[in-house]
Amino acid sequence: MSAAQQLPASLRAALTYSIGVLALRRPFLHKILDYEDEFFALLMLALETHSLRNTDASFSESLYGLRRRAVRIRIKKDDTRLKSSDGIHNSGLEKHQRVLSVVFMVVLPYFKSKLHSVYNREREARLQASLWGPGEERFDDADYFDGGGEPLVSTGTLNAETSVRTRLTKKIQKIIFACYPWLHASCEGFSFSYQLLYLLDATGFYSLGLHALGVHVCRATGQELMDNSSRISKIRNHERERLHGPPWLKALQGALLSCTYTVLDYAQTGLIAAVFFFKMMEWWYQSAEERMSAPTVYPPPPPPPPPKVAKEGIPLPPDRTICPLCSQKRANPSVVTLSGFVFCYACIFKYISQYKRCPVTLMPATSEQIRRLFHDV
């Protein structure tokens, strides 16, 4: 169960790496990487639907010989014909259970990935704002001109058109930034709880999604594996018999169905081979001796506390984008590596050249300890 749950992540890593390597010579493949979440979601949607329809299991579960069974709880009666003492009966999946299984395996992970991306962007923006202050437009008072000097697009007009959309987007990002950590922690907590209870035989459901669907995952019997191919052929023959229209249209539709099934079968086989190839390459480049001899990686230590402002030093302005020396908007921001405070380059260079110290902490400093900062735009 654990291996089947981790297989989609390994498959995505293998595909992303392979497409990234191919994109070095085929630049059009960068479009796939730009929409990586959508591309992988569509791929898994086709594979999971195909696998659930044919084998009553997800793509990764069918690889490990697992099958999904619907759990039906019967009320105990005095009927002697009731053979099951615990009142639980396993049967094949129903149509709505297959649809909801696809939702839990494809749609929800897609939205979770998008929320994670939005959360990471908002966190980076807040980190950047804490260092540089809130971002501002560089050309607030300027217009764009054409060759004759006439304004083409006014910045004020553009701001008026996009202000509502921008405010709404920022509100949504703030809501996601505040709610996503709790949502992620809840999902991970439920997942860990169900897996722990599953290992202790306290529940028959491996995850919250399986419990909500009322589905057990169990090993496929030998007879099921033998009858799987005949079952698939019966399903496909039944679909061909349901085709309507003239004979030439039926033949065309049948050919399209056959091509679709062939493509899905080859895609499933190829992806399984890609996963095993990726795992083999991972093992090849990281032998057991390297893993044993590799030093233990410890988490990085926390950053040191910021230096204290001296009583006789220059006080810090409430706006972090203001230079403490000239009390103006910072120009050519530069940091004193000794203390970490940011000033205008001209102001701090003149001050340190004259007083040989940091103006805020009064710690001894030289002009060689001034570093120019570049804003990543």
TrEMBL record:
This is Peroxisome biogenesis protein 12. Pathway: Protein modification; protein ubiquitination. SUPFAM superfamilies: RING/U-box. Belongs to the pex2/pex10/pex12 family. Component of a retrotranslocation channel required for peroxisome organization by mediating export of the PEX5 receptor from peroxisomes to the cytosol, thereby promoting PEX5 recycling. The retrotranslocation channel is composed of PEX2, PEX10 and PEX12; each subunit contributing transmembrane segments that coassemble into an open channel that specifically allows the passage of PEX5 through the peroxisomal membrane. PEX12 also regulates PEX5 recycling by activating the E3 ubiquitin-protein ligase activity of PEX10. Residues 5-287 form the Pex N-terminal domain. It holds the Pfam family Pex2_Pex12. GO terms for cellular component: peroxisomal importomer complex; peroxisomal membrane. PANTHER family: PEROXISOME ASSEMBLY PROTEIN 12, PEROXISOME ASSEMBLY PROTEIN 12 PEROXIN-12. It is a multi-pass membrane protein. InterPro entries: PEX12 (IPR017375), Pex_N (IPR006845), Znf_RING/FYVE/PHD (IPR013083). GO terms for molecular function: ubiquitin-protein transferase activity; zinc ion binding.
